[in-house]
Amino acid sequence: MAAPWEDVLRNKPAIQEAASVAVDAALLHGVLMRTEGEPNASDVVNYAPFTLLPSAVPSALFEQAYAVQQDFNLLVDAISQNKEFLEHTLASTIKVDDFTAQLFRIHMQVLEEGLAQSVFLGINRSDYMFDCGVDGTPALKQIEINTIAASFGGLTSRTAAVHGQVLKVLGKSKEASRLLPNNPSKGLALGIAKAWELYGSPSAVVMFLVEEVQRNIFDQRCVENELWNRNIRVIRKRFRDVFEKGSVDDARRLYMDGQEVAVVYYREGYVPKNYNQQNWEARLLLERSRAVKCPDIATQLAGTKKVQQELSRPGTLERLLPGHAEAVTRIRATFAGLYSLDVGEEGDKIAATAIADPDRFVLKPQREGGGNNLYGEELRQVLEKIRDSPERTSYILMDKIKPQPAMNYLLRAHSPLQVSECVSELGIFGVYVRQGKEMVMNEAAGHLLRTKAIEHADGGVAAGVAVLDTPYLV
Ligand code: ADP
Ligand code: MG
């Protein structure tokens, strides 16, 4: 599945010229990030890291990933409404993982009080790698599904234009014309706009809940601008602001500074460091309100690694999606081997297998955002230490996906231009809106390709490991 530019990869002058065109094109097209030194000001910005060249993606697997996205939307939504499934699945995890436990407590508290929210908006991103089988045939395998703060839908809509220009500079106009248009931020905004409309209060605003440190603001602005273009007001607030100025009235309408909020779009709140006591209180206030949370806390829990692992058990998908046999088949085809480390014989056995052969597996805690998983020798050491402790149930084990590497250049500010052996991860954005029991929107909204050098086992773009890319279908 090689891309048709192997011939230019080692042509240093051509690559250097293309790289300088690429960087300026990225700046012109808005592939931007704030700098590490000034993460909360836009006076100085730089380009978000990206590959010099698009990466080859097998078209059949690309189509497969798109074709299963609506199924995943249905699945996530079904899990979020299934109190018993979440309770049962997360029972062992919440005994040892404080963060998941706290989310779960809010989930239960909100259910006990009775849900005020009647319109539901899901924005997720299902991520895959192309596992290279023994015969060399690549297969689409899901890495995870992100049900909260799935990012880069904005910046990724701008990389195709950059890569198109690079290919032209390198004399590959025909290939440039084959790059697919892609605009997830528009799809995300259409979902938010639909939820806003169904909420039914034309003067209410959409609130982006954002982090204290906002390096990736331009990615969010892409979605914001799509909403402003539809005459929907957007405000940006942090948990701290909600704690200080948020309130819920008797009808459980949410207000910020006296302004009614129709939709809360979280780009924050997915890792423990996002929370202190006040932020947890703010989160509870938001969840109790009738505003459309994207996601509500149940949908966030549906995206945990523990849930992902339980989904792979025989019969689970069938129970969650009765009457959707074909969707179940499509979903299951993307699953890699996933294993529970719950206390008991099953967990003992797989822990022993992984200790004996750590390179076959990835050890994953219930964390998001990259850089948390364990591999190889480190996996073995940690698992050996916790194998007889209940602590092991805060992790899951997963088969390691082994994609075929390809050569590319990763462009990063202040970094030398050098060729790297790389692997890619394809994400598909899903958007859905449910009103009461009725799905009123269920879409695949675009894609994201991220590429990293093979020496990094883990980590995304925000974590400084992967870079933005554009798929070139082969
Ligand atoms: P996070 O929630 O931190 O993003 P992921 O499950 O997506 O967690 O893992 C982070 C990164 O680790 C992925 O982007 C991928 O590069 C790598 N990774 C995760 N699972 C696997 C796997 N099963 N095989 C190979 N690499 C993996
Ligand atoms: Mg991930």
From TrEMBL:
**Pathway where this protein functions:** Sulfur metabolism; glutathione biosynthesis; glutathione from L-cysteine and L-glutamate: step 2/2
The cofactor required is: Mg(2+)
Q: Where does substrate bind?
A: 125, 148-151, 214-216, 220, 267-270, 450, 461-462
Q: Which reaction(s) does the protein catalyse, per the Swiss-Prot or TrEMBL entry?
A: gamma-L-glutamyl-L-cysteine + glycine + ATP = glutathione + ADP + phosphate + H(+); gamma-L-glutamyl-(2S)-2-aminobutanoate + glycine + ATP = ophthalmate + ADP + phosphate + H(+)
> Pfam families, from UniProt?
GSH_synth_ATP, GSH_synthase
- UniProt superkingdom: Eukaryota
Detail which positions bind Mg(2+).
E144, N146, E368
Q: Where is the Glutathione synthase substrate-binding domain?
A: 204-302
- In this chain, ATP is annotated as bound at 144, 305, 364-373, 375, 398-401, 425, 452, 458
Matching entries from InterPro entries are given as: Glutathione_synthase (IPR005615), Glutathione_synthase_a-hlx (IPR014042), Glutathione_synthase_C_euk (IPR014709), Glutathione_synthase_N_euk (IPR014049), GSH-S_sub-bd_sf (IPR037013), GSH_synth_subst-bd (IPR004887), PreATP-grasp_dom_sf (IPR016185)
- What are the UniProt keywords, alphabetically? ATP-binding, Glutathione biosynthesis, Ligase, Magnesium, Metal-binding, Nucleotide-binding
Record's cofactor remark: Binds 1 Mg(2+) ion per subunit.
Leading EC class = ligase
Which GO molecular function annotations are given, in alphabetical order? ATP binding; glutathione binding; glutathione synthase activity; metal ion binding
Gene Ontology cellular component list:
cytosol
Record EC number: 6.3.2.3
Subunit note: Homodimer.
Similarity annotation = Belongs to the eukaryotic GSH synthase family.
PANTHER family recorded: GLUTATHIONE SYNTHETASE (PTHR11130)
**Function summary:** Catalyzes the production of glutathione from gamma-glutamylcysteine and glycine in an ATP-dependent manner. Glutathione (gamma-glutamylcysteinylglycine, GSH) is the most abundant intracellular thiol in living aerobic cells and is required for numerous processes including the protection of cells against oxidative damage, amino acid transport, the detoxification of foreign compounds, the maintenance of protein sulfhydryl groups in a reduced state and acts as a cofactor for a number of enzymes. Participates in ophthalmate biosynthesis in hepatocytes.
What's the protein called, per UniProt? Glutathione synthetase
Q: Which organism is it from?
A: Sagittarius serpentarius (Secretary bird)
